[in-house]
Amino acid sequence: MSNQAPLMGQMMNQPLLISGILEFAARHYANSEIVSQRVEGDLHRYTFRECHQRARQLANALQALGVHMGERIATLAWNGYRHLEAYYAVSGSGAVLHTINPRLHPEQLAYICNHAEDQFLLFDFCFLPLIEAIAPHCKTVKGWILLGAADRMPADSKIPNLMCYEDLLAAQSADYAWPQFDESAAATLCYTSGTTGNPKGALYSHRSTVLHAYASALPNVLNVSSRDAVMPVVPMFHVNAWGLPYSVPLSGAKMVFPGAALDGKSVYELMEKEKVTFSAGVPTVWLGLINYAVQNKLKFSSFVRTVIGGSACPPAMMNTLIDDFGVEVIHGWGMTEMSPLGTTGGLLSKHMELPKAEQRKILQKQGHAIYGVDMKIVDELGEELPWDGATSGSLLVKGPWIIASYFKGEGGDVLEDGWFPTGDVATIDPDGFMQITDRAKDVIKSGGEWIGTIDLENIAMSHPGVMQAACIGVPHPKWDERPLLVVVRRAGSTVTREELLAHFDGKIAKWWLPDDVVFAENLPVGGTGKIQKNKLREQYSDYQLPS
Ligand code: AMP
């Protein structure tokens, strides 16, 4: 049998292209709505049909500007309908959409713009001062496109070749046939947050993006259907908003974009007004929303499900959302290099009869692999470790939407025997549920043993007086490193160091107990809403622990 050529299937060989998603939504869910809180201050609404029309006008505009296949076109924009149009027009026409995080330092912005060799950059008008600052340093950008109408154009600006998005579109017809090409062609480019060294680019293909979109809509994953109204709170510059700009249109759901207004009050009001059923974001955003709802004694009338990921969802947050607000919480884990989804939480049928506290422990894990992602944990020698829910090791992954190499070969060969090392440390239980114990570089090494910081932070945050907590290793003469807990108190709380340390009693091994607690006004948060532990470690590098 091995010598014989396989009998080939006789189905259409249609490439998996991103343009096909919007084309499908516009044809089969033509009247599903896209609602956007604009940076202009008002609410904009239209349908997938109109989105498709404008995306084709933009594709024609890009052609008129001389953009070629494979060239990078950047965006610096909040979540909104014009950004969505760029998602489809740029990738759909064969160019590569490079989403840039506006929260990066201007020097880093210019660095990645040059590294990507961006040809044009589309930006929300609120970023005009930022563009003015970086434009002279972005050597490859031929034109800057302000995502707005002519009335938003500055009267005089030093930005060379500044263009108006609405004028560009108005000059074009919607008569455009999406080109058909190899599904492995590059579609979007996203740089890692780069806490150490320069950021590196993850270059997604049409195929990887479409497969990720299919898989992420599944019931075990995000469970998106045409009856949902989905609000991507996670920014479109953070790993393509976890794929929602693709998975939502292919599901035919309504989309609700919050724009720049991500404070608790704005998110709550938009959710209620547009009857949002499902949302996705990092824990820091939910903290703002929950605080606003609790302080104002509000409930959600339509919001029933959310995915929380990007960093560990504190159990206290999960409990509040489920028990006090009736919102189902799906814990998700992934990374820029994984498009980003790798695992999502949920229960198996055998878990349905378990007591609530037992079920919660399962839901608090980072979750089960999604079809398309394989994972394993290994020791320092690369030997695979058992799935017993207790042994922790380095987490490796592989699959069709996982990075094979960084853009321009940066970092060299990153795979280990065909697997991508995530840099996370995790356990996997016999049912395949993975739990992150730490990021390898955040783990505290005390006397040759490892202390996982996520557990310590979750316990601290289960104290009613604690709003946020981060645990870091600080140098120790005898043990190399010992844990220091940095805490932000809730408004009005007077919780003390001693009370907090007592709160750990019986919940962890004695030698894991933090050596000290310090109180801070706030914690340093990076561009994607994650606590920057490297900054904290710098800040407390000389900290004298009590002996
Ligand atoms: P990024 O590429 O910026 O999205 O960061 C990816 C990293 O975020 C992962 O490697 C994890 O360390 C962390 N991360 C993402 N989701 C979770 C989660 N649910 N729990 C714990 N860590 C997470």
Automatic annotation (TrEMBL):
Record InterPro entries: AMP-bd_C, AMP-bd_C_sf, AMP-binding_CS, AMP-dep_synth/lig_dom, ANL_N_sf
Entry-linked SUPFAM superfamilies: Acetyl-CoA synthetase-like
Domain AMP-binding enzyme C-terminal: start-end pairs: 456-530
GO molecular function, a single term: ligase activity
Family annotation (PANTHER family): ACYL-ACTIVATING ENZYME (PTHR43859), BUTANOATE--COA LIGASE AAE1-RELATED (PTHR43859:SF4)
Family (UniProt): Belongs to the ATP-dependent AMP-binding enzyme family.
Protein name in the entry: Long-chain-fatty-acid--CoA ligase
Organism: Duganella rivi
Taxonomic lineage from the root: Bacteria, Pseudomonadati, Pseudomonadota, Betaproteobacteria, Burkholderiales
